[in-house]
Design brief:
elongated, mainly alpha
Length: about 70
């Protein structure tokens, strides 16, 4: 079963939301000095790194799918 282009767009959107959430958590903790969302600064930073990396992987997966779909 071949994924539709719409499915790739949804994956890209989910990746963008995950990366944005990771950036928000990291900036909130490091730059603005807000109280940790998860209870500890270390856990907040761990979540931030995970979400930014996961968003980046989603973008990479979408880009590779786009390249494959344009090949003859």
């Amino acid at each position: 079963m071949t994924p539709t282009p719409f499915a790739g767009t949804i994956g890209l959107g989910i990746g963008a939301v995950m990366a944005a959430l990771g950036v928000y958590v990291a900036l909130r903790a490091l730059v603005f000095g807000g109280a940790p969302l998860t209870g500890t600064l270390g856990l907040d930073l761990g979540f931030a790194v995970f979400f930014i990396a996961r968003g980046g992987l989603q973008y990479r997966r979408w880009r590779l799918a786009q390249e494959r779909s344009t090949r003859p």
